Every structure is written in C-alpha cells, then in structure tokens.
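Appendix B. Raw example, untouched.
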Amino acid sequence: MKLARLLLLASALLMTGCTHNIGDFTVISTKNVDFSVIAGSRRGAQVEGDDIMHVIIFFPTSGAPNLKTAIDRAIESVPGAIALVDARLRFRSFYIPYIYGQDAFLAEGRALVNPAQASHFPTKHIVVTYDAKQDRYIAKPVSAPQYEALKQKYAFAAQS
C-alpha cells in the first residue's frame, strides 16, 4: 500500500505542466496597421491561434514556439482581420518525462476586421462553420463550385 502511494506521488511530481498568462491587451497586431482604418473596422468572431513545439522522449520535433506565429494564425483565421481586440496571450508547457511534452504560445481574442481588406480575397464565397469543441467560428474562403455544392446540400436538407 505504501509503495502504491509512493509511486502515485512520484508520478504526480514527474508529470509537470503549467500555463502562464503573458498579458491581456486591448488591441494587438503583428501586421502593419494604418490607424486611420481602425475607426471603420468592426469586431469579428472570437479566434484563437497557437504555435506548438512537441517533445517526444526528450527530442523536440521542431524549433521553439513563436509568439508572433500564434498571433498571426489567430488574425489570419478571419478574412480581412488586421488585429486582435481584447486579446489574451499565454504560454503553456507540460512534460511527461521520457514520453511526451509540449511548449506552446496561445493567442486568443476577437478579430478586428477591416471590410476594405476583406473584399480583396480571390473568392467572394466564404463558408463559416462553428467548432463546438473550441467554441469558435471559422471562416474559410471557398471556390464558386464548392459554394454551390454546399448551398444545394443544405437547401435540400432544409426541405426534407
């Protein structure tokens, strides 16, 4: 019984992980933003971006995670977004010795969308889906044939 408790305590001490809040920001961007367009911009969907480094055994599978990449992924997940509003930046790390671990930068906030930039996408068709696991909307440009196929699929389903 004592051995089981000792093993449980040792495994709890060896599996370490933590999340650090880097900061909360009213507006943050890694893009060159012309401040004159901010007044005409609107708040978009809640978005998240991350940059993760995986560690297998004790070998990293890629370089160190990058905060700029996490912010860029969050901003670029919404067409026409130029910044994040009410953003939170975090660093998460955990490691199970000699098995697996992760280091990650996480960026989340509401996308600040400039309508003028949103219209410069190669397609006029955008499909927005809801990801219930992450509780966020994801906007994705699609081609005209893909859009028409989705429209027919959901129009048929609505008639049934």
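End of appendix B.
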